[in-house]
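Sanity check record (used in CI):
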Amino acid sequence: MRPEKLDEATIAENLHKMEGWVRAEDGASIWKAFRFKNFVEAFGFMTEMAIVAEKLDHHPEWFNVYNRVDVTLTTHDASGLTDLDFKLATRMDKAAAGRMPDHLK
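Expected output for Putative pterin-4-alpha-carbinolamine dehydratase:
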């Protein structure tokens, strides 16, 4: 079953509940920069999220350098944002919480 693209009100409501996630200029994706204590924490986060993404069959676009992981989420099949994007974003926030330095929480 193909995921359904969310309407503008639902997207705004979801983003309002999430800390640090911003919508891309084209409106088709959300983005967040995660900063971790070190490379091991960043890579551990990516490993954990790779397993979650595979289970959801929804894979992020991400970029990693040392302790930084920049994540972009969109649903290509729907040409925009769906519930899958916000589910994965929520899981990422939870996974990142214990790995981030106190001043970045």
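The domain at 6-15+29-95 is CATH 3.30.1360.20 (Gyrase A; domain 2). If this sentence no longer matches the regenerated tokens, the check is flagged for review.
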